[in-house]
Amino acid sequence: MYHHISNFEKNLAKFTGAPYVVATDCCTHAIEMCMRHDAVKKVKSFTCYTYLSVPMTLTKLGIKFKYNNDHWLGEYNFEGTRIWDSARLLHPRMYRKGQLQCVSFGNGKPLDNKRGGAILCSTAKEYNSLKQMGHDGRDFKYKKWIDQKEFNVGYHYNMAVEHAIQCDKLLEDYKMKDSHLPHMVEYPDCRSVKIKG
Q: How far apart are CA 120 and CA 9, in angstroms?
C-alpha cells in the first residue's frame, strides 16, 4: 500500500533534483512540519501576499513574524529560516541544496490534484524525521504501529495512497509539458485580516 507513496516521492525527487521527498496531505502541513522540525521561534519576515493558512500556522505555533511587501513568483522564503513556500513552483532541478521546500498539489497548482503536498529535503536524517512526524510519530521498522511502544509526538499529515497514485500520473503528464515556468498569482494582503488566538 505505502509503496505507491514511496514511488511518488522517488519520482518527484528525481524531477526536482531533491535528494529526498516527504509526501504530505497538504502544503500548509508541510510548512508546519518544517517549522516544528527546525524549532523555528521567529521569522524575520515573509510576504503578506499569501494564503491565510500560512500566517495562521505560524500563529498556532507561537512563531513571531513580520510581513513584507514582496510580490513573489512560484515560491518565497521565510526569511531567517531555510524553509520555502514553493506552492506555485514545480520545475526540473528546482531544489536548493540544504533547504526545506514545501510544494503543493492543491487547486490551481502545477499538479492540480485537489489535495496534497510534499517537502523537498537534503538528507536521510531529515527525511526519516519528517516522515515519522507526518505519520503520527510512527517508526517504520515496526510493521504494525501497535507493536511500537514509545512515540515521539507526531501528526496525521501523511499523503493518502489514492492521492499519491493520482499525483504520480499527473507528474508523468507534467514532465511532457513545454514549459514549467510559474505564472503570476496574486494573493490578498494578509495584513488586512486579524488572526485571533
A: 9
Cell 524553509: give the residue: 83
What is the predicted pLDDT for the residue at 94? 97
CA atoms of 138 and 165, how far apart (whole Å): 22
**Is residue 2 scored above 80 in pLDDT?**
no
Over the stretch 66-80, which tens digit does the pLDDT of each residue have? Answer: 999 999 999 999 999
Is residue 163 included in any domain, yes or no? yes
30 belongs to a structural domain: yes
CA dihedral 112, 117, 122, 124 (to 10 degrees): -130
Residue 21 placed within a domain: yes
Residue 98 CB contacts under 8 Å (≥ 6 apart), including other chains: 82, 122
Establish if 197 belongs to a structural domain. no
Range of the domain at 144: 3-192
User: Could you tell me the pTM of the whole model?
Assistant: 0.96
For the chain, give the longest Cα–Cα distance.
Answer: 50
